[in-house]
Amino acid sequence: MKLLYAKSAWEVPQLPLPAFLDRAARDGFDAAEIYLPGRSESPAEVRRLCAAAGLRLIVQIGTSGRAPAEHSASLDTLYGSACEAEPLLVNSQTGRDHFPFAASAGVFERALALEQARRVPLLHETHRGRALFAAPVTAEYLKALPGLRLTADLSHWFCVHESDLSDQPESVAVAIAAVHHVHARVGFAEGPQVGDPRGEAFLAWLDLHLELWRRIVAARKKAGNASFTFTPEFGPAPYMPVHPLDNTPVADAWEVNVWMRDRLTLEFGREA
Description:
By secondary structure, the protein is an alpha/beta fold. It has a single domain (2-268), classed as Divalent-metal-dependent TIM barrel enzymes (TIM Barrel, Alpha-Beta Barrel). It contains 9 helices and 8 strands. Helix 8 (203-223) links the parallel strand 7 (179-184) and strand 8. The longest helix is centred in the last third of the chain and has 21 residues, at 203-223. It is globular.
């Protein structure tokens, strides 16, 4: 199974897309993960620019609206646009955490129908504030809709549950079996992003994440996947903790993401 490492554009929103892609390519990434609704470029132009830089593309989207039906409608539009960019996959932050289960299940059912029609993988991210905000809730959706596939950003669950997740192994196991893409950010019991994963103070949390990612990679290899993708996704301030007196970030997010990619490559290599 081939391992691909993507660079998120999240922490450098001020950088023009060609400059971002050039820097990501020079730093040895295989792909770019881009939040398409936030770009001025068309899907075709994003596709062209990625190809020119020698990078594959992962498209990120986020549904919106005050009610589940509006999230379904926005998913129709956003996923359709994302498919025009011909990405490896589309990663969606889907729904809201306060919608009733049955209503959110309807949004996911619509997602499955769209994916079946367009044949571009549509994954749903485990994310605070979204429908998949918590491990047991996500497990219930996966049991109800077995075709649902996930992007695992488990840093959110560490924070939501204020735990290392060892207290809910069944839900975590159900989720791991459905993961097809990982956002490799290290969270902890009090937040979705440690100050700097290179520091000894956060080594235990890094190890916890690495073990979960090992289980995910093993599951996808066993399932016979041809490839698997990681996106190191440490974000900029204020997601990145800041020094309290001058409000400057405690670390450079780009450097941290390059380090995280290198750590993942050390752990998993380019072939698993």
